[in-house]
From TrEMBL:
Source organism: Vibrio hepatarius
Sorted UniProt keywords: Cell inner membrane, Cell membrane, Ion channel, Ion transport, Membrane, Transmembrane, Transmembrane helix, Transport
Protein name (record): Small-conductance mechanosensitive channel
Superkingdom assignment: Bacteria
GO molecular function: mechanosensitive monoatomic ion channel activity
Length: 288
């Protein structure tokens, strides 16, 4: 048993001796690698802090210049991603990776990813166009990509909207640029379009006068430009008036709802009937 124990310990001791010799001969190299790895981690840590600080400073400068919030967020995200890539390349270079090779690999990978993600790149390019031409800004009520809502943010790949019923809708930037953009908040005034139908028995001049007097009582309706009231169509069951007053954009929906109610009440008070679709049925008796 003692011989067997001696046989096992001999190779183990020899292995430990070789490991010790290797550590002694390569200690400088191991220390260098350790220092490089720690340095790379420090570069990533400190670099990330600096990137956040620089991106935040740029955002503050843009905000002081009264830049739109959506534009500020877009530039902040873009600067942060670009600077972090630079920090990452510097960290890899510290551990011995050739930065030229890294840039080449990133370029090749970028090309491959770009071909695979053409939609994402088109969204990015569309985001740049939105920021450059600014068809809308943060807080505007717009209709884009078949969706209507207030602009919450313009991000690198998508635009975020909040609908009137408090839903968040994310629209790809390519969908925003690729279709019509309706900005309801761009101008300070808007025109309300109402269609009011009255009976064929109604006095048209009286009806027009009643509608005008009713709307003129509302101080939110602008005097300039003047409202338009006229006969729009002779429909199947009614004579349809078009009523188009102008209001401030912020008052649009409140005036719209109030005007509909006020016109209905005024017509009722003046005995002007608002008809509804009717059908006359004639019965003919057939004698055998």
């Amino acid at each position: 048993m003692a011989g067997e124990s001696m046989g096992v310990e001999a190779p183990l001791a020899e292995g430990l001796s070789q490991a010790e010799k290797w550590l002694n001969s390569n200690s400088d190299l191991l220390i260098q690698y350790g220092v490089n790895i720690i340095s790379a981690l420090l570069i990533l840590f400190i670099g990330n802090i600096i990137v956040k600080a620089v991106a935040g400073s740029i955002s503050k400068v843009l905000e002081k210049k009264n830049m739109d919030k959506a534009v500020v967020e877009f530039v902040h995200g873009l600067v942060r991603y670009l600077l972090f890539i630079i920090v990452l390349i510097a960290a890899l270079g510290r551990v011995g990776v050739q930065t030229a090779s890294v840039v080449a690999v990133i370029g090749a990978a970028g090309l491959a990813v770009g071909l695979a993600l053409q939609g994402s790149l088109s969204n990015f390019a569309a985001g740049v166009l939105i920021v450059a031409f600014r068809p809308f800004k943060s807080g505007d009520y717009v209709e884009v990509g078949g969706v209507a809502g207030s602009v919450e943010a313009i991000q690198i790949f998508q635009t975020v909207l909040k609908t009137p019923d408090n839903k968040m809708v994310v629209v790809p930037n390519s969908g925003v640029i690729g279709g019509p953009i309706t900005n309801y908040s761009r101008h300070s005034t808007r025109r309300i379009d109402l269609v009011i139908g009255v009976s064929y028995k109604a006095d048209l001049k009286q009806t027009k006068q009643v509608i005008r007097e009713t709307l003129e009582k509302d101080p939110r309706i602008l005097k300039d430009p003047d409202m338009t009231i006229g006969v729009l169509a002779l429909a199947d069951s009614s004579v349809n008036f078009v009523v188009r007053p102008w209001v401030k954009t912020a008052d649009y929906w409140n005036v719209y709802f109030d005007s509909m109610q006020a016109i209905k009440e005024a017509l009722d008070e003046n005995g002007i009937e608002i008809p509804f679709p009717q059908m006359d049925v004639h019965l003919n008796k057939v004698e055998d």
